[in-house]
Write a structure and sequence with these properties.
The chain is mostly beta strands and about 220 residues long. Helix content is about 0%, strand content about 50%. It contains no helices and 15 strands. The strands form 4 sheets. It has a 4-stranded antiparallel sheet, with no helix packed on it. Strands 5-6-7-8 form a 4-stranded antiparallel sheet, with no helix packed on it. Strand 5 and strand 6 form a beta hairpin. It starts with a strand and ends in a 9-residue tail after the last strand.
């Protein structure tokens, strides 16, 4: 699940997750093609794996981000030991070097999505619990950093590795449990995509909204 699709260089890459639910027996895989239209998909194999009792992190929820210098990175992680990021080899699009923790939180944190804008890297995450219809407590939260590897700080200056976060979207009386977000550039502006549930009957809803920044360069 949790496929992440990006164009980088001359290929389109799809990172995806496989996992035994409720454990961190997980892996992130990779496929690529010359173009989605061509459909000439190539299996590029496993990128990162995790194993219960061996690794503290959970190798799911991949997000490819290209830094300000054009270098690819992969953010990943769900619950367990939080969110990590690692630099990728642009030839293989697989990790080169160490994993750096950039966020953690008791009670649930997952689904990283990083956007570079205004001289900052903005880390969006989903917190609390999803997938319970109108009873979901999912929320979208964020922090920002001048470096892709952090520290990511919330509006109060608390590090996301210490449980800090600023809530971006907690739903309304009409829809509950927003999360599973992705953020992307849209010409001169930005968009945020996320799912939620109808407060009336729990039906799933998909939202795509414009993403703005206030005068202090915080997203809204």
């Amino acid at each position: 699940w949790a496929a992440d699709v990006h164009r980088f260089g001359s290929r389109t890459y799809v990172y995806y997750s496989v996992s035994k639910f409720g454990t961190n027996n997980s892996a992130i895989g990779l496929m690529s093609c010359t173009s989605i239209a061509a459909g000439d998909w190539r299996d590029d194999g496993m990128v990162i794996s995790s194993k219960a009792g061996v690794n503290t992190y959970n190798a799911i929820d991949p997000n490819l981000i290209i830094d300000a210098s054009g270098v690819p990175w992969l953010a990943f992680g769900s619950w367990f030991d939080g969110i990590y990021i690692t630099k990728l080899n642009p030839s293989t699009m697989k990790p080169t070097g160490s994993f750096t923790k950039i966020a953690s939180r008791s009670g649930g944190i997952e689904g990283p999505a990083i956007l570079y804008a205004n001289g900052y890297y903005y880390l969006f995450v989903s917190i609390d619990r999803c997938c319970q219809g109108a009873a979901s407590t999912y929320k979208i939260a964020y922090g920002r950093s001048s470096s892709i590897t952090g520290p990511y700080l919330d509006k109060t200056g608390k590090a996301m590795t210490a449980g800090g976060y600023t809530v971006f979207d907690a739903g309304t009386s009409a829809w509950k449990g927003p999360g599973g977000q992705d953020v992307l550039s849209n010409g001169s502006g930005w968009l945020i995509s996320r799912h939620a549930y109808s407060a009336t009957n729990g039906a799933p809803i998909h939202f795509i909204s414009d993403l703005y920044f206030d005068t202090a360069k915080w997203p809204k």
